[in-house]
Amino acid sequence: MAVVIACVNHKGGCSRTTTAVNLAASLALGSEDYEIRSRKVLLVDMDPKGNVATTFGVDKRRVGPTMNELFARGVGDYSLKLEDCTLGPDILSRSMRATWKKNNPEKTRGPPKHIGIRNLWILPADLDLSGIEVDLATRVGRENRLKLTLNEAMDHFDVIIIDTPASLGLLTVNSLCAADCILIPIQAEFYALEGMSQLISAIREVQKSVNPDLGLLGILMTMVQTRSKLCETVTSHARKHFGDRVFETQIPRSVAIAESPLEGAPIVIAQKPTKSNPASQSYWEFAKEADERLKAITDS
Ligand SMILES: Nc1ncnc2c1ncn2[C@@H]1O[C@H](COP(=O)(O)OP(=O)(O)O)[C@@H](O)[C@H]1O
Ligand SMILES: [Mg+2]
């Protein structure tokens, strides 16, 4: 059975997608250096912005049926299957390599060997998903629609990661109801912890009403600027609230991370985790910590 992780924070631009995508890619690839076992991973996009596909260089206009069509199905209607909507490692690898070529026209030797992925499937979304949120509001069992949908995938994957929108609406609530645990990226800036209480009470409500076993995988500090007093203050506040649930690893603010979607590959794939690529290193180190926490869940 898959462990389902929802990457949530209703604050926009706090690295939700970047974190979901890089964690999914590193767990799927695995690493001997970081002692991470390769797992079969499904990355689900619940954000109408549909950024997950773009991160892999996939043209959103050219994907087939998406999360939207799956969600629009009636209960018990399996005419469209979840696997009909996913994009697998071959397609993702091809599109990352094609995007690399497009962005590096001067390089005649083609993309480096490490631009590619295995064991990762994505379930893309598109803009219409926001319309579905309105439609959902009138349906019976509206909070549990994603859980029902993912039931089809539970036996086929080791990990399912859900990227959520910047709101606490029904798409996020569906994600919380479908998840075993939550991953919260927090941008290390002044207003970061404002609104945290809103998120925590949404989580509590879901725990009380629908999903009592929902746990906290951890809190990841993102866009951290070293030697910034403000970042240190925000991080120490987070530690006071969440204790050792805050991951040791912090993700630095980095141009390489901001630019990697343009390169058509998440940073953990685009750059090898060497000393000269600290941003890639940081996401790999985070993946190692997450991997250990996941093992604790699956072994218990
Ligand atoms: N550590 C980082 N350093 C610099 N830019 C980042 C970092 N993480 C994300 N970004 C950039 O910030 C923007 C928002 O990140 P994203 O992951 O899309 O956030 P969200 O999904 O929470 O809206 C994107 O343009 C992304 O490339
Ligand atoms: Mg996003």
Can you characterise this structure?
The protein is of the alpha/beta class and 300 residues long. The chain has one domain (3-299): Rossmann fold (3-Layer(aba) Sandwich), CATH 3.40.50. The chain is built from 13 helices and seven strands. It has helices spanning 16-29, 51-55, 67-72, 82-85, 89-103, 129-136, 145-151, 170-178, 196-209, 229-242, 255-263, 267-270, 278-299, and strands at 3-7, 41-45, 120-123, 159-163, 181-187, 215-224, 246-252. Strands 3-2-4-1-5-6-7 form a seven-stranded parallel β-sheet, sandwiched between helices. Strand 6 (215-224), helix 10 and strand 7 (246-252) form a beta-alpha-beta unit. Helix 7 (145-151) packs across helix 8. The longest helix has 22 residues, at 278-299. The model has no long low-confidence stretch (mean pLDDT 93). The protein binds adenosine-5'-diphosphate (ADP) and magnesium ion. Adenosine-5'-diphosphate is lined by residues 12-18, 51, 166, 222-223, 251, 253-254, 257-258, 261.
Lateral arrangement of strands in the main beta sheet: 3-2-4-1-5-6-7
Amino-to-carboxy terminus distance: 13 Å
What percent of residues adopt helix (DSSP H or I)?
Answer: 40-55%
Attached small molecules: adenosine-5'-diphosphate, magnesium ion
CATH class: Alpha Beta
Question: How many domains, in number, for the residues?
Answer: 1
CATH topology name, in short, is Rossmann fold
The topology string of helices and strands comes to: EHEHHHHEHHEHEHEHEHHH
Q: How many runs of DSSP E, i.e. beta strands?
A: 7
CATH superfamily: P-loop containing nucleotide triphosphate hydrolases
By DSSP (H or I, 4+ residues per run), the number of helices equals 13
- CATH architect. name: 3-Layer(aba) Sandwich
Question: How does the overall form come out from the CA principal axes?
Answer: globular
Tell me the fraction of residues in β-strands, as a range.
5-15%
